[in-house]
Amino acid sequence: TMANSKALLVLENFIGGKFVPCSSYIDSYNPSTGEVYCRVPDSGKEEVEAAVKAAKYAFPIWSSKSPLERSQILNKLADLIEHDLEAFAQAESKDQGKTITFSRTVDIPRAVYNFRFFASSILHHTTECTEMATMDCVHYTSRTPVGVAGLISPWNLPLYLLTWKIAPAIACGNTVVAKPSEMTSVTAWMMCKLLEKAGVPHGVVNVVFGTGTKAGEALVCHPDVPLISFTGSTLTAQRITEKSAPHCKRLSLELGGKNPAIIFDDADLTQCIPTTLRSSFANQGEICLCTSRIFVQRGVYSEFIKRFVAEAKKWKVGNPSDPTVDVGALISKEHLEKVRSYVKKAQAEGARVLCGEGVDSLALSSGNQKGYFMLPTVITEVKDESCCMQEEIFGPVTCVVAFDTEEEVIKRANSVKYGLAATVWSSNVGRVHRVAQRLQSGLVWTNCWLVRDLNLPFGGMKASGIGREGAKDSYEFFTEVKTITIKH
Ligand code: NAD
Known about the structure:
Pathway: Amino-acid degradation; L-kynurenine degradation. By secondary structure, this protein is an alpha/beta fold. Helices cover 40% and strands 22% of the residues. The protein folds into 2 domains: 9-255 and 464-487, Aldehyde Dehydrogenase, Chain A, domain 1 (3-Layer(aba) Sandwich), CATH 3.40.605; 259-446, Aldehyde Dehydrogenase, Chain A, domain 2 (3-Layer(aba) Sandwich), CATH 3.40.309.10. It is built from 16 helices and 23 strands. The N and C termini lie far apart (77 Å).
């Protein structure tokens, strides 16, 4: 009935294997309609305290299981999420505004894979051993789980990024208290419903919903949480670093980016253009790895601009549940306004907007008039010092500028505070290696974008983060190492 379909979804915290209501709630919006559709617990110290207590209680049980036992449970959880893939994909799209195509093909499959990947990799780690014959000694290292891990994740890839933390944390034998973004909490709550069936003991995974300043800070400041894995903005990371400093916590910080694409004259434009469109506008440009500064060598600059803009105009913006739509809604009204304000600032500085915001018109269906939509926007004639070329915009906006030499473009690409990801387009193999070596960036993709092997390190340099995640890196982060010396 209408009444039922309009009823609000009410989430509950998941603590010690049970769903528990909270005394107050936050409204959560459907970004494609602008309507409140869900209420999220507004947890604080008290709820975090209960969750940490449950996680501490479960730690001795969980950490004493063999890696194989934990691996089997993680695989079971992966199967259960995969079984409900469509329901998770629908929920993620509705909650976040992303297209159903993206959540079906990227977010949820990756969440499933995160569990499978760490279920496998935990079985294959080895520790180190050295012999010191002259001293009659052998040394070896031993790794043990750290304890209760605090996991804080953002709104852009909700279940994908949360499970990228939960999976390695529990695979290594830790128990966790997770706090997803208050704007995108639904899929984490859905996952909690599957934990018991997967065989995850009570208290191993606890999820506390709420805002960063209340629930997040309570977790960061809790003395019994020795480790925080955070993905989000650089500003929040600074605050977390300050707040956790008195406790000397172990921090992993995956932060923002201002990622360059460098396109040389000899690039294969038929590959480069569609990939650079995706790297600029996929997930509404709300991926930390999205390209927002495109440097094009003078010889192909006008051709690139012409073809890139023509293709950008073809991207269909609208109802995220329509499988033919390429760009869904941005996360919130505030965020949409912020992204738009960058386009205005660029124009005020004399830059040219070639397509999108303020140039082309956006036609939305009647149900989506109040949604937070924006057209893919391409800006040019913009100075390197401009805020559009320096600050993370995190929306469907990209800047295109020309360059002449390799030396020059490396310098310009590196002249931002961030250092997360870069793409390089060229058919000259020597140049590709040279440029990749010199870019200040945790990841460099040449002639491709977003191709990941989870075995290898992921993370940023400079203001883009501290620490790396991946098979070995996550294992090292989520375990404490000890060096033991035996004299025989
Ligand atoms: P955000 O920093 O506002 O929030 C991230 C999380 O931190 C949320 O759960 C939030 O509630 C919580 N939080 C906020 N203030 C807090 C505080 N004082 N103490 C503890 N927790 C707090 O980021 P966002 O807007 O949700 O996400 C977008 C940002 O995330 C962008 O900058 C993007 O580049 C970055 N990001 C980085 C990566 C990466 O892997 N490097 C991946 C995705 C997103």
